[in-house]
Every structure is written in structure tokens, then in C-alpha cells.
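Sharing a chain and its predicted structure for anyone who wants a worked example. Both blocks are below, sequence first, C-alpha cells second.
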Amino acid sequence: MSRIGKLPISIPSGVTVELNGHNISVKGSKGELKRELHPNMKVEIKENEILVSRSDDSKLNKSLHGLTRSLIANMVEGVSNGFTKKLEIVGVGYRANVGGKKLTLSLGYSHPIEYILPEGIEIKFDEENKNILIIEGYDKELVGEVAAQIRSYRKPEPYKGKGIKYIDERIIRKAGKAAAAKAA
């Protein structure tokens, strides 16, 4: 039995879960998420819990068991609390501005980069440090995808660390030419 898959998912108050065949719909205060589940997985809703089980112990079903439980748990967590990712913009003159549903980035290129925010995603700045973007949303996959796309516009470089990085990302620095010449 999958250690993750056999754990029940508790349904918090204010969240409604509907199961229609292999389609699951989770609705909460933040929004609504829908997903089609694999036909080999059996999902049951009992009182305030969701239970995921598998039909047999084939390799495919074992791998889908924990995955299905995690996907449903992320849906429940997202519509009740939401998810956040933080990005830090490092570099002289590197800036970001949010206007409506558009993020404008100045990252040292000859032109500003405009990113249209998808539905369900909100970006704001940290109050203390204006170089920290906070990406919020109720869909964990979408929040991670948006953060990865924004980071891809200027990945952090290893010499000075300039670029867009996750707040908890550690950049391994390299010695520049001058430091390497002194060591020789």
C-alpha cells in the first residue's frame, strides 16, 4: 500500500467536493478546480474525508495511487488556502511593475518584457523589499508554471548572481577571471 496514497484527505469547512464518474470538482472560497482522474483509481467521499484506493498492485496503479491522492489534496488545499511562490529580482536597474493583468519586467534588455497573467493568478510586491514578487493562486501547478516562466526571462548567472531567482534558491558562485588569474 502506498504510504501517501492510503492517507485520507480531510475536507475543511467551506469546501465542497463533487465526484462525477472519473471527474472530480473541488469548490472553495478561492475558486473552483476540476480534474479528470485515471480510471484505475477509486475515489470515495465519506463525511469529511476523501479516500483514494487502487484496484490491484500493478506497477502503474502503485505509481498512480500516491499521485492521485496528492493531486486531490493540492486541489483541496488550493481552494481553501491558496499557494504562493516568491521570486527575487537581483541586479542594478532590474525592475518589475504590475498593472492590471500585466506584469512588465525591465531586465537589462533593450526592451521591456510584458507578461500577461493567466486567470486565477495574482502578483504583488513584498512591502519591505520591492524586488520580491509574490505570486499567488489557488492552482498549485499554475502558480509553479507562472513562477518558472517569469524566472526564465533572466535566469540567475553564476558570477554576480544577477537575474530572477526563487527566494530560497541558492546560487553557486564562480570565481571571475581576475580571481582565477591571482590564484595561478
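Comments welcome. The first strand starts at residue 9 and ends at 10.
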